[in-house]
Amino acid sequence: AEISEEYWRELAKGLPKDNSVEIKRWPEKNDDRSGLDLADSDERKAVLTALIKI
């Protein structure tokens, strides 16, 4: 994933208003029944932990 420098600068000031990051499904063959269920607290934690490591 490539996150623009502008996004990081805006994020440092608070929640970005002008820039955004689009998280796409990877690999593309995944569908809405595969991957993580963000309604589940353990799976949300896994996603947040992975994002923190970026």
Tell me what you see in this structure:
The chain is built from 2 helices and no strands. With 54 residues, it is mainly α. It has one domain (5-52). The longest helix has 12 residues, at 41-52. It is extended, with a radius of gyration of 13 Å. The mean pLDDT is 79.
What's the quaternary structure here?
single chain
Structural class: mainly alpha
Order of helices and strands: HH
Overall domain count: 1
In short:
This is 8219_t:CDS:1. The protein is mainly alpha-helical and 54 residues long.
Question: Features of this protein?
Answer:
extended, 54 residues, single chain, mainly alpha
Helix and strand layout, with pairings?
Elements: H1 5-13, H2 41-52
